[in-house]
Amino acid sequence: MKIRRHRALAAPLGALALCLATAPASAQTAPARPWMNAKLSPDVRTKAVLAQMTEEEKLTLVFGYFGTDFPPKTFKAPAEARPGSAGYVPAIPRLGIPAQWQTDAGVGVATQGGAERKRGRTALPSGLATAATWDPTLAYRSGAMIGSEAYASGFNVMLAGGVNLMRDPRNGRNFEYGGEDPLLAGTMVGAQIAGIQSNPVISTVKHYAINDQETDRDTGNSVIDPVAARSSDLLAFQFAIERGNPGSVMCSYNHVNGIYACENPWLLNEVLRKDWGFKGFVMSDWGATHSTVAAANAGLDQELGWPFDKEPFFGAPLKSAIGKGEVPRARLDAMAGAILHAMFENGLFEKPVTAAPMDLPKEILEFHAWVTRRGAEDGAVLLKNEGAVLPLTPSVRKIVVIGGHADKGVLAGGGSSLVYPVGGNAVPNTEPKTWPGPIMYYPNAPLDAIRREAPGADLRFVDGKDRAAAAAAARQADVAIVFATQWAGESFDVPLALADGQDALIEAVAGANPKTVVVLETGGPVLTPWSGKVAGLLEAWYPGTAGGEAIANLLFGKANPSGHLPASFPRSVAQLPKPAEPNAGDTTYAEGATVGYKWYDAKGDAPAFPFGYGLSYTSFAYSGLAAKPAGGTISVTFSVRNTGAVRGKDVAQVYVSGAGWEAPKRLGGFQKVNLAPGASTKVTLSVDPRLLATFDKASKSWKIAPGTYKVLLGHSSRDIVGTVSVKLAARTLPVGWRP
Ligand code: BGC
To answer: Distance (Å, rounded) from C-alpha 489 to C-alpha 721?
Structure first.
């Protein structure tokens, strides 16, 4: 029998011998199943089913397996797991409780590196690219698309929704997250989660919390003032949870203020559950559980990714701890109940997922290619456009494309979130070939798409390995387009500078041709020491499986760039709060909530490209800025007009400024608008009152100080075009306040 086989293989720790398959005698007579009634609330249904469950059954729900064989630990994935998947929690057929089939992650349906066969799926642009769209509607649709692929692939849990704040642009996983501002990150990631969960699929939000670097991620200790955390990293989670209502929160590997995140009572019991009223379940990252009693009592509900933990802490050890009264029986009810609640709430009982073929129908993938291309177009950020070198026009006859494997494909980020494309890796056999590799290039070559946009042009590709040859080719061309890449991934951090002589290559090409355009495919911000010498600069991030077409559409003006930076681009490492490379052990975030642009503002320092910045092929003007107190916060109105010659999308940004804050200003609201030339629209925004407040530890509440606040309207955090003042009365918001 399958389960037995699995148990036997994982057996060194007989603890796994939870009686998953053997139902009690009473099981023979199926009880009436009121919990199957979808008209009842998730609360009522949870209570009803819990009342019928044996302890063994509850224990079954709180322990999950890796879904892929893992030879280093002689682990064989349960036969019922989806092949090559991230995780699996067995079903309880006696009660009609479905299994949980779990897949990574934020850009689409991933396959684990160790899997023999990979599913070809649609990859969205990176999470950071989606944040750069500043368009929650688009993020929702993107989420709905990958959620539908997850469901069609046989999954009902998607380990998506990364919202760790970008404290250090060198964090190797920044590409999975939403940037440096809590409002932007929380809004965008929350919208994506809501989109995913518009399918009968639970989404997570992760990695909770302060898991802001990959160096020593398994044991490192993030040291942060809890008050500062409330208005930075935790606020990003709070916003994402309020907007997305994820069924699950994944706690992270690291320690937070000396205690592992997955057994941290402050993070789990206090902030998440008590203060924010989170009703879903907390799952551990794969290998992030370190105890039984401490973790269960601190608020961890589900240990996942066996065999990555040292012991199956929530297997037999939990059963024994409950027997001894070290973990209250009621706590097991709460753990299983939280999981069931999320399953009920997200339709997992009503629309059971079924096993699916490795391949999806072509028509579906074609439509999804359109969705991801839109995301890539709207998230790419035009950072420079000297002399309107872009968009390229039909008069450009000779084009040279240089480097970045632009003749083959576009780069993706590495690690568990890697989605394998239909068609396979366009640049195979680059090291590392195994996890967090392979270094993946999606087979959607910018060069091919450029050729389609400029059918008559003399188009050449040089690989850029020979700098002199690249410069010589550039000298003879009307325009030179250099593709520069930086691979980032899970489990390592990256330098801020481009590697492999790419800076020198760009300098050489720019020296040979003033009409040099650089296209960056990077996980996050990088140094751009040559930016003063190139005419054009487009940050395309990791643009997903239709990324090559998106880049060509942007270069040729078929799509108008509308992405804005979700994170500041530094001029130098010295500008960062912690210039030294990420270290092992304690990482003290002395900058507190002064993250990203707030840091630059507080220091009076100018980044290379500021948060919120992004150019368009048209221009926008603002008028009629007015702000007034309303409902205990500030309501802002203004008009946006497209003053240029082509249709385009603007990202209007409202910042607020008050006394005694961590920085001169905070992002208070934003709106993306799509306008025809000459058209205008009126925007009304309301500032979340917590963005006008500071967290008061003593009273455990948000306090808005009485006084005058400035409201600033801008095209970026550094291009403020209008300021008005508003007087606010004192206001106290309870810690659990939500809009
Ligand atoms: C990652 C998670 C991921 C999990 C399952 C871990 O290594 O940190 O983000 O969901 O693996 O693949």
So the answer is: 38
